[in-house]
Amino acid sequence: MRTLNLAPLHRATVGFDQITDMVDRIMSNDANNQSYPPYNIEKKADDSWRISIAVAGFSDGDLNVEVKENALHIIANMVEDDSKNGQGRSYLHRGIATRAFNRRFHLADHVNVTGATHENGMLHIDLIRDVPEALKPQRIEITKTASKDASVIEAEKVN
Q: How many CB atoms lie within 10 A of CB 43?
């Protein structure tokens, strides 16, 4: 596996810490190669997205969605309750993984979570970019300067 040394970039740049931190996170996430649970990221509009995570076998109480420090955390703690049927379960084949997980998505500036729904074994999380008015481009009206009327002749001072 290749490693990327960003030390020369840190020495030669100022103010790009977020970009180098993001590259470090991406490189470290590739090493872990998390594949559970499977998920989709859908672009619904220019400033709107939906993350859909397959959470078959989890109830609403098992799932926790929270945003902290510009990161979206989806945490699932599956508590297996074998007392429901009075005895321990015995599987001949267990293909549905219901193990606990912690999935994190780093959010760009001004991206907010607008809601989360859980239906048919899918957890849907809706996101939208809400740029404050102060940061949006502003159109500046160009006004004409007051010019002297050509029909008025100025009188010169006479001594």
A: 9
